[in-house]
């Protein structure tokens, strides 16, 4: 077994949040990451740390972009001053893929000091001396991590500030093997 660090210049995390009539999307940087590989260069584990200070919006401009990004970093969402990092630790990868080459990945995601188990599908492809690991879209319920701002379940009446509880994440990881 060997452990390899991810290639930060190629790896990416994209997010998308939803609200009535639209939503927002953006990116987040990985601060640190490693993938555990067996002797056949097949991923068997790993740990990824996300730098919440880098959360950015891609669909707004100027002051609206700055306002949204500051709001996402505030205590109403990710409380980045108190919790600057989020971490995902892989606990198990099912060695059997589905018909499309995706494996079930299980792990623990910690956001705002709250840990929850999650599962999602990911696949890997060897390209020359690199390995690309790509997830299917991961849908997360933000209220599981005490991110309650604008949640219908936490409002007495609906307003223009209602946002969906679920947000989506797509992750692409590159490592040199």
Describe the 3D structure.
The chain is mainly beta and 177 residues long. The chain has one domain: Lipocalin. It has one helix and ten strands; from the N terminus they run E-E-E-E-H-E-E-E-E-E-E. It has one helix at residues 62-73, and strands at 2-5, 12-19, 22-37, 43-57, 85-93, 103-111, 114-127, 130-135, 138-141, 166-176. Strands 2-3-4-5-6-7-8-10 form an eight-stranded antiparallel beta barrel. A hairpin with a 2-residue loop joins strand 7 and strand 8 (130-135).
- Classification by helices and strands: mainly beta
Q: CATH superfamily membership, which one?
A: Lipid/polyisoprenoid-binding, YceI-like
Shape: globular
H/E order of the elements? EEEEHEEEEEE
**Fold-level CATH name:** Lipocalin
The total count of helices amounts to: 1
Strand order of the largest sheet: 2-3-4-5-6-7-8-10
Uncertain segments are: 154-160
User: If classified by CATH, what would the architecture be?
Assistant: Beta Barrel
* Overall pLDDT: 91
Gyration radius over CA: 17 Å
Largest sheet, in brief, is: 8 strands, antiparallel, barrel
Tell me the span between the first and last alpha carbons. 12 Å
Number of domains: 1
Beta-strand residue percentage: over 45%
Q: Can you give the helix content as a percent range?
A: under 10%
Q: What is the CATH C-level name?
A: Mainly Beta
Salient structural properties:
mainly beta; globular; 7% helix; 8-stranded antiparallel beta barrel; Lipocalin; 1 helix; 177 residues; 10 strands
């Amino acid at each position: 077994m060997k452990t390899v660090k991810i290639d930060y210049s190629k790896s990416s995390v994209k997010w998308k949040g939803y609200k009535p009539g639209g939503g927002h999307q953006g990116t987040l940087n990985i601060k640190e990451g490693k993938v555990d590989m067996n002797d056949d260069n097949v991923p068997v584990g790993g740990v990824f740390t996300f730098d919440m200070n880098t959360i950015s919006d891609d669909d707004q401009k100027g002051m609206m972009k700055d306002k949204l990004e500051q709001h996402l970093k505030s205590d109403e969402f990710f409380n980045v001053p108190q919790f600057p990092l989020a971490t995902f630790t892989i606990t198990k990868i099912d060695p059997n893929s589905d018909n499309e080459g995706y494996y079930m990945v299980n792990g623990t995601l910690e956001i705002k000091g709250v840990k929850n188990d999650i599962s999602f599908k990911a696949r890997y492809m060897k390209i020359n001396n690199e390995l690309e690991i790509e997830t299917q879209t991961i849908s997360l319920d933000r209220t599981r991590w005490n991110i309650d701002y604008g949640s219908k379940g936490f409002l007495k009446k609906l307003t223009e500030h209602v946002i969906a509880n679920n947000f989506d994440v797509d992750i692409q990881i590159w490592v040199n093997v």
